[in-house]
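Below is how a single chain appears once it has passed through the pipeline. First comes the sequence as given, then the structure the pipeline wrote out for it. We keep one example in the README because the format questions we get most often are answered faster by looking than by reading.
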Amino acid sequence: MSFYTPANLLTLARMPLALGLLFTAPLSPSFFLLYTLAAITDILDGPIARRTHTASRCGARLDSLADVVFLLAALFCLLPALSLPGWTIWAVAVIAVLHCAAWLVGFLKHRRFTALHTITNKLTGAALFCAPYLLPWVGTDMLCAALCLLASVSAGEELAIQCLFGEAAPDCKSIFHLLKSHR
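Resulting structure:
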């Protein structure tokens, strides 16, 4: 199978779109254009890979890399423009530690890094994507609290799944789904 599938090309397009954010003013029309186009590539690449029967482990890893580039570029662009509550740094640090612990446990158990595609991880990603659009209507404190709560639940679930189950389950829906299937 070729590396240059439509899904992988969409995923690859996310990286220059994300890096373009670094050259725009935060929350400007050009920022939102690049931000939205990058998000559309993230939304479409998976379904296209499945529909064209070109889904692969390489494509999944590429998608994860593109997600990280997009997230870091958006944060680098947005964070200096936002007035975040002081506790946010600590909450994000705890969430990052939980995610890193989950990845480490997964690596130690399965000899490969595995990011899980749980419903809570997908909801967290969707909420993070929507956050810049919500800023004019929702206060920064409330938005940060909701995002940190959702992200901490997601990270905690990912760590629990990695610790409790012997086999790698990157496409599991939730810990409840795995518990139900292991009865």
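Residues 140-164 form the longest helix (25 residues).

See the next section for the split statistics.
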